[in-house]
Amino acid sequence: MAEKTKAIKMVTEVGTLVWPKVNTEIDEYKGKKKYVVRLELPDKSEKKLIADLQKLYKEAQDSPEYKGKEWRHKPRLGFKPDKKTGKIQFTFWTYAFNKDKEGNETDQKIIPVYNKFGQVISDKTIGHGSTGQISFNPSVYNESEDANGITLYLRQIVVHDLVEFGGSSPDFEFETFVPGDDEEEPFED
Question: Which residues pair with 168 in a beta bridge?
Answer without folding.
Answer: none
